[in-house]
Amino acid sequence: MTPFRVHILGCGSALPTLRHYASSQVVERRGKLFMIDCGEGTQMQLRRSRLRFLSLNHIFISHLHGDHCFGLIGLISTFGLLGRTAPLHIYATKELQPMLDSQLDFFCRDIGYEVEFHPIDTTKNVVIYEDRSLTVETIPLQHRVPCCGFLFREKPSLPHIRREMIDFYKIPVSQINNIKKGQDWTTEEGETIPNSRLTTPADTPRSYAYCSDTKYIPTLHEIVKGVTTLYHEGTYASDRQENAGKYMHSTSADAARVAKESEVGKLIIGHFSKRYDDETVLLREAQEIFPNTQLADEMKVIDV
Amino acid sequence: MTPFRVHILGCGSALPTLRHYASSQVVERRGKLFMIDCGEGTQMQLRRSRLRFLSLNHIFISHLHGDHCFGLIGLISTFGLLGRTAPLHIYATKELQPMLDSQLDFFCRDIGYEVEFHPIDTTKNVVIYEDRSLTVETIPLQHRVPCCGFLFREKPSLPHIRREMIDFYKIPVSQINNIKKGQDWTTEEGETIPNSRLTTPADTPRSYAYCSDTKYIPTLHEIVKGVTTLYHEGTYASDRQENAGKYMHSTSADAARVAKESEVGKLIIGHFSKRYDDETVLLREAQEIFPNTQLADEMKVIDV
Fold first, then answer.
1. Do B43 and A48 touch (CB under 8 A)?
2. Which of A108, A245, A254, B27 is most buried, judged by most C-beta within 10 A?
3. Nearest chain B CA: its distance from A167 CA (Å)
4. ipTM for the complex?
């Protein structure tokens, strides 16, 4: 199966600590890289990850709090110094554009590529990116400022050809696509070979949902139902339920509740408050509700 | 003697590497912290240094290239989250102010302290900061954009009182200041005790000059003559003399030449190009000209 992975570059919250960087992650699929959020220090973490800088063409910013976007100008500037020529697409709420433009005008006048800004509406669940095999949708979230998550869905793919059957029946290359699309094959002798003998089933499309920052949303499962992997913030443990309410964040139990209600494959929690020197308590509280939960961590690579 | 130290937070050049952060350092003197430059990641490095965030009230920005200022907004924002109330003074060329203001308006509306902006003229050698025992001067440098260094000078201090002599002659506390200022002491018996028996000489004022980024300036010694410690960029070794010219940077030999011409106490070189995996070559070339040279390094603490 095509690799479909998430590289965690940073999973801390507003205050960076010695243990966690500000939010950023890279979704890798078929050699394409998509960045979600870009807190301060992201370019250093990207370098540490050894991912190919120039395979990154799309950056999605969930919301305009510094820990999710202060690394953007440094990354853009570094791409320029590295000789980038391909356009870089930035998806964020429209308020970012004038600030970014004035920084670009001043600091990045000489860069040899275009920064294309795509304003997004965080209140709607709509497709904002599409290519041959993938779509990215916004997921409306509820935080102190306009905020949305991002849902990466593989498009349904065609069944796999069984090479040995093609060879056995000497089926010409020109017919392969038809067979992938479901056609049977009729031999010269008039025998009909059913499609099911010529193919194995298509891969189940996988999906990855990123939900940060947000308070618990009881209806979130309507959008993220059945995703293969869900990243949901779990800033606090239940000891800080009050903070979660005050700052519109989630506890790890809230994250697990969403995972359970959405019947996802697995849950990754992140965006940890600086108060936890050890996130085991967050993990335990989540696993009581949704057992297949993991903690995010810098440089962790997760197979979707 | 009062501690007077420089904490190197970052000494890389435009492109951060896995070995070096972007430029930033903290000058520590008498419990006060002064930051010079603030590249991306500075707040993380400051945390790593374990210096007290709230003792930092002044930030000097040498020039507006990203690797010297992109960390500013994150640091200001973090200070706000940490509950800072004391004003923070920022010294930089005037072009920074509108950009910073628009970021502050958007991201830092809730911070509980003032950011006071002090525009500086990089073309003049003038005092821009002064307190009871220290001055900071600008040092005009020559780079691709307006740029200056910063020269920290201790003011001459008074001689030290010899406690045992004061006790011996039963000199009242009210006279101590006069004696520090040079007065002799006349005993009840009419004997005059010369000031030199009551005091030991004042400490020699120390000074620290930060010169980055700049091409070699043959007249720089006119300003930094005799400083105790000179930090001078040495981005390249002699193999990249051409790059130094093109980008208006110095080689480590240039830095050593300035140190020698200025008869400084010691030289620290930094702002290393990413092309060097090992800066020994830079050190060697500098030491051939000025033996008392050291390499900067992240988290290194240098006694001025």
1. no
2. A254
3. 51
4. 0.91
